[in-house]
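REQUEST ID: PR-0412
SUBMITTED BY: lab tech R.K.
PRIORITY: routine
TASK: structure prediction, single protein chain
INPUT:
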Amino acid sequence: MRKRFKFILIFLVLILGGGFIYFKTLKTRHQELIKSKIYYTLNLVDSEWKKDLSKDKIVFTSPTFVISNIYKSMEGPKSDQYVVIDDSKDELLWLTSFKTNAVSSDEKRKLSNDFVCHTNFEYRDAEHYNRWNLTERIGSQYPRITSISNGVEDFKLPDGFGFPVFSNERLFINAQALNHNITDSTFNIKHKIEIGYVNNREKTLIPLQPKTVFMMFPYDPKDPFKGPTEQLPNACIPVETKNHSYLDTEGNALSGHWIIAPGKHNYTYDATQQLQIKDSIRLHQITSHLHPFANRFKLRDKTTGTIIYDCNSENFTEKIGLKSTPSFSSQKGVWMYADHVYEMELDVDNTTDNDQEMMASMAIFYYDGEMENKVRELKL
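STATUS: complete
OUTPUT:
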């Protein structure tokens, strides 16, 4: 009996030891997935999403995120959830504003948005476009409405404009925590996510169509972390090759999440193909997603030389993080054309002595004439 117990004990020690060694080999983001699963399964922290519906806004509160490490972008605890604004009704609503704040785990205190990596708001394109009989749009682009990220606490669409959804339509929210600076404590937070809306019974707005365009650069998939070569002088060093990796029309590998060395750097990217402007569009809103050390982010019409959006980001000086990332908003709008070339330009200044990570994207909204006709038909 004693030998059997000893054998079982040794077996358990080997299993736990092997599991610990394997765990330590994982990247931070994968470690956090395992840790969060344990916290939620054992009911050590709150694991449920909450919803608070009022007349003109819906507030979702995330499960608890345990902050116990340094988390760069895409590394921290996260939670995903399909949500419905009001499944007791079938009404047309207009989404008009988006906001995310970090709060204490008891939800009583607002915390620094240093702990917000991002909140992604998405629609389910098959469900969304089937309801409007716009099935040709299904699968045409990634169905993201917009993002809130470090440096952007909230933004509103221009007055009179909105993104149309039905009250009982399923949406998707992805929330992830961030921590660039605190290393001496473990603490719990939540994200409080607010979506403002207008009921179509009260006011019919002008519909906007969302699209996300982002910078990405080539790398050699056979030797991805080598960096620029004579064959690939514009090559980046990807953070990893499993996420945020893409193929262009010629099958070349591209990364939208790359390493920046210490010092100042300038990047340019031809966004014309991503924009996919078929005739012309009238642009009304841009909100950027950037990482710390990004200084200036522009969208330029290279054909005319006009700068459409010039985002001067403000970084904290006493810690790592974006203090402010201004949005572009216009009721009048800016015309963009199919026969023009559009370029994104990014200036960064990595003021640390270590490599850092960078992403740069723009969540844009432009006038959706086809949807406006569908809304008019709905009212008849």
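NOTES: The chain has two domains: 27-206, 210-372.
REVIEWED BY: pending
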